[in-house]
Specification:
seven-stranded mixed sheet, binds zinc ion
Length: 255
């Protein structure tokens, strides 16, 4: 299994980093994880035609995580070079189906037809949930401390390799539990200071989760302006676990 970091930025326009977007690659199977604006181009740069994705998984439906969903379905439905025949399966938190329904109403006929559309499977926002994804990938989820149907996501390959993506979240015991001992933890570190709304993490909050979960490796993502990279790496690095800031185009081989 490979975890490809397509977008490691935020909604703030940035020359180096795009909004959140990731790819789980298992053999011939490709599962998109989130997808803010620019994700389809980054997929193409990596060599994957977005119209042939096997599935999508969304941590939540804020725009910096799903801005390319309507363009993706539009490309699958109408794209010159072959209209997709099979439906596109999506997993998201409870309420994702209603969200998609509003997108479909906004673009009538363009992102759904009788022969093609996204088919949503919803995951619990009350407690643990799981699903089996294409390629034999198991998805385990926990509710995150955020909004817009937010989930923590863990992907397990058939050989047992594991990666957790925090999604957007405030301090969350559920994230520490889900990430216990995983091969890779990709976690947001959006805030420079403790977030008064508890809907994002700051370096000390990430360090607490990392010290509890003890993953083998940590990548930080989703830095907002004001958070200094060196400070975040120093604080989280005190846990004694390899930590780095993620970059767009990074590929992690997980075996
Ligand atoms: Zn969010
Ligand atoms: Zn976000």
């Amino acid at each position: 299994m490979k975890f490809v970091l397509l977008g490691t930025g935020t909604l703030v326009p940035d020359a180096e980093r795009g909004p959140a977007g990731f790819l789980v690659e298992q053999g011939e199977h490709h599962i998109l994880v989130d997808g803010g604006s620019g994700t389809l181009q980054r997929l193409a740069r990596y060599g994957v035609d977005a119209r042939r994705l096997d599935a999508g998984v969304y941590s939540h439906w804020h725009l910096d995580h799903c801005g390319d969903l309507a363009p993706l379905l539009f490309a699958m439905r109408v794209g010159i070079g072959g209209v997709r025949r099979e439906h596109y399966p999506i997993w998201g938190g409870q309420g994702f189906g209603e969200f998609l329904g509003k997108l479909e109403a906004a673009f009538p006929g363009w992102i759904r037809s009788d022969n093609f559309g996204a088919v949503v499977s919803e995951l619990s926002l009350q407690g643990p949930d799981h699903a089996l994804l294409p390629g034999g990938i198991r998805l385990d989820t926990r509710p995150a401390r955020h909004s817009a149907g937010a989930l923590h996501l863990r992907f397990t390959s058939p050989s047992g390799a594991t990666v957790v993506f925090s999604g957007d979240t405030g301090p969350s015991p559920a994230l520490a539990e889900l990430a216990a001992g995983v091969d890779l933890l990709v976690t947001e570190c959006a805030a420079a200071e403790p977030d008064p709304w508890n809907s994002h993490l700051w370096p000390e909050a990430v360090a607490e989760i990392v010290s509890l979960a003890r993953p083998k490796r940590v990548l930080l993502t989703h830095f907002y302006p004001g958070l200094e990279e060196a400070h975040a790496l120093e604080v989280v690095g005190r846990c004694g676990i390899p930590v780095a800031r993620a970059w767009d185009g990074q590929v992690v081989e997980l075996g």
